[in-house]
Amino acid sequence: MAQVYRGGQPYGTGRPALLTPHEVRTHEFPPLRRGVDPVEVHRFQARLADELAALYQEIRVLAQENDRLRRALRDWQARRCRPRNGGPW
To answer: How far apart are CA 62 and CA 73, in angstroms?
Structure first.
């Protein structure tokens, strides 16, 4: 498993780290003789960074909803499986 570095520090998941919107916005491309329009590149970077930020926010919201549902299920299961008074034991 390859070691992944993020900001000069080891990132221990073993998977490539996700790009942050800031990294997309600030990434510099080397100049080429027959390159692309830098304004278009920066416009695309801004659009991509905005989409990443929206997706990361959606992931956070869905993770919170998942936690809420998991807690609700656990509480429901605890109520349903609680032994009733007057049982044989």
So the answer is: 16
Which DSSP string corresponds to the chain? -PPEEETTEEETTSSPPPPPHHHHHH--PPP-TT---HHHHHHHHHHHHHHHHHHHHHHHHHHHHHHHHHHHHHHHHHHHHSPPTT---
Angle at 16 between CA 56 and CA 36, to 5 degrees: 80
pLDDT digits (tens, 9 = 90+) for 50-75: 999 999 999 999 999 999 999 999 99
Q: How far apart are CA 77 and CA 88, in angstroms?
A: 22
Residue 39: C-alpha distances to residues 10, 43, 45, 51 (Å): 34, 6, 10, 18
pTM, to two decimals: 0.60
